[in-house]
Amino acid sequence: MTFLVLDKLTKRFGDHLAVDALSLAVEKGEFISLLGPSGCGKTTTLQMIAGFVDATSGAVLLEGRDLLTVKPNQRGLGIVFQSYALFPHLTAAQNVAFGLEMQRVARAERETRVQEALELVGLRALADRYPRKMSGGQQQRVALARALVIKPRVLLLDEPLSNLDAKLREEMQLELRRIQRTVGTTTILVTHDQAEAMALSDRIVVMSAGRVEQIAKPHEAYENPASAFVAGFLGKTNIVNGATVRPERVRFADSGLEGRVTARIFQGNHWLYQVETAAGNVTVIRQNDGLSVPAEGESVRLAW
Questions:
Q1: With contact defined as beta carbons under 8 Å apart, do 272 and 283 qualify?
Q2: How much is the pLDDT for 241?
Q3: Separation of alpha carbons 218 and 194, rounded Å
Q4: How far apart are the first and last CA of the chain?
Q5: What is the count of structural domains for the chain?
Q6: What is the CATH number of the domain that holds 36?
Q7: Which pTM does this prediction carry?
Q8: Which residues are within 8 A (CB) of 207 and not within 5 positions of it... i.e. 6 or more apart?
Q9: Is 266 exposed, middle or buried (0-12, 13-18, 19+ CB in 10 A)?
Q10: CA torsion sign, 242 to 245 to 250 to 253?
Q11: Are residues 85 and 162 located together in one domain of the fold?
Q12: What mean pLDDT do residues 69-79 have?
């Protein structure tokens, strides 16, 4: 039996169809990302799983049981919000212990599990620190420990890294994946960040206007997008005669499609080019290997 199944899950707000018959089967221990732009229905889908939003129709089956008939606080889910939602008057350890207290876990076991959860996220030394004395990354780790300490059957993550700066967000992506693999908790992440989804996920669910555009492993969706929307959303792309060609696959060559360089931007480890051709504008990524590169205005030929 598949661990978690979304069966034609649908949500309408008046005349607006926010989620349109979304179906998805998730295996136990899998990391799934719901990916798409604002308003695509990914957060509404997560909220229906959590029970914060009532579904219009469809089902959410966890090991065969329909969660839509279960109260939110009885679904056995761990949730990390974009804002972290920590209690400011409680220490890190007290925040992590809160869910266990609600479950009336005995004090000795509670203290052991809190210390284990803080150790897992690398914050055991900050157990007595209050949120206001913690960095954004540390607060995010406390929120993650609080969600995991109750040993949830499914972990739901609602844009948990979006408030962090770029460098810290990248570091926390690696940390989040490490923790998820260590614990093995089935995880569903909502994000609009393509790089984040591809870095973290076993599979991604690309959504647009309430519909699923493609469900695939990250590299499969990137290399073989099911639609022009997926091709354009998952990074830079060129569409030539109906075929998708990623910019890093295009190269300057002695023969091929004729063009003229209209823009050249240095981005550290690579150059980003715009080339005007008879087939339309083509984006090219040229690795910075120290060799000479075409200048703006120069005539070139492209191959891939």
A1: yes
A2: 66
A3: 10
A4: 44
A5: 2
A6: 3.40.50.300
A7: 0.79
A8: 22, 34, 35, 36, 40, 41, 42, 45, 213
A9: exposed
A10: negative
A11: yes
A12: 92
